Amino acid sequence: EVQLVESGGGLVKPGGSLRLSCAASGFTFSSYSMNWVRQAPGKGLEWVSSITSSSRYTYYADSVKGRFTISRDNAKNSLYLQMNSLRAEDTAVYYCARGPIGELDYWGQGTLVTVSS
Amino acid sequence: DIQMTQSPSTLSASVGDRVTITCRASQSISSWLAWYQQKPGKAPKLLIYKASSLESGVPSRFSGSGSGTEFTLTISSLQPDDFATYYCQQYNTYSTFGQGTKVAMK
Fold first, then answer.
1. Helix H or strand E encompassing A79
2. Contacts of A100 in chain B (CB under 8 A)
3. Shortest CA distance to A105 belongs to which of A96, A114, A113, A93?
4. What's the pLDDT at A109?
5. b or e along A81-106 (b: 16 or more beta carbons within 10 Å of the residue's beta carbon)?
6. A50 to chain B: nearest residue by CA?
7. B50: contact with A, CB 8 A cutoff
8. Among A3, A76, A117, B23, which has the minimal tally of Cβ within 10 Å of its Cβ?
9. B43 to A104: CB separation less than 8 angstroms, yes or no
């Protein structure tokens, strides 16, 4: 069974940093591109970032470019999102999702990031 | 950036109704469009990819059509489990989601 479990969310002050993790199991992690997608409270979905299976290519939404860094460790079946210079508007549930940028076929349950003073 | 506009934002329907949701792209995205269903407090679920391909395990009452800039998601006979919010997603150029369409009980 495919499972994606996010962790690392929490309360952080504006300008602070946070690192999210996503532990994958039930599939050959190293064969799949992975993504982060977020959802602000009561709002719609926003694609954040994507990384190819070998980490060769990474992609970012304009809203996070230069502040967030996606990475992965295929030996540990793990996906990461390093978030720096956090702003109030980054407050959201962050989901990791399997697949190329489109066609996200498995999602985790999400981890809540709250940016507030 | 490619903008995705869904209509309507909210739709009231009854069990058994045929439901259609429209998604328009601000420029051509060929068939690089997916549809997702999301229920409150849950992660989205992939329903349709490449505009009209049904994801494995998704009931056949769901169908997608369109290409270029105009797309539709149709539920042929609405079931109690289908009351949810639906999102389209373009992936022709990076990715953008529509704002969502809530299907509510009439």
1. strand A78-83
2. 91
3. A96
4. 97
5. bebeebeeebbbbbbbbbbbbbbbbb
6. B94
7. yes
8. A117
9. no
A68 CB within 8 Å of a chain B CB: no
Give the distance from CA B73 to its chain's centroid. Answer: 5
Query: pLDDT-based confidence at A101, cuts 50/70/90?
Result: confident
B41-46 CB contacts, 8 Å cutoff, 24+ apart: B43/A95, B43/A97, B43/A107, B43/A108, B43/A109, B43/A110, B44/A37, B44/A45, B44/A95, B44/A104, B44/A107, B44/B87, B45/A107, B46/A103, B46/A104, B46/A105
For A98, name the nearest residue in chain B, comparing CA atoms only.
B46
Q: List pLDDT tens digits, range B2-57.
A: 999 999 999 999 999 999 999 999 999 999 999 999 999 999 999 999 999 999 99
Q: Structure tokens of A1?
A: 């069974």
DSSP 3-state assignment of B74?
strand
| B89 with A108: Cβ contact below 8 A | no
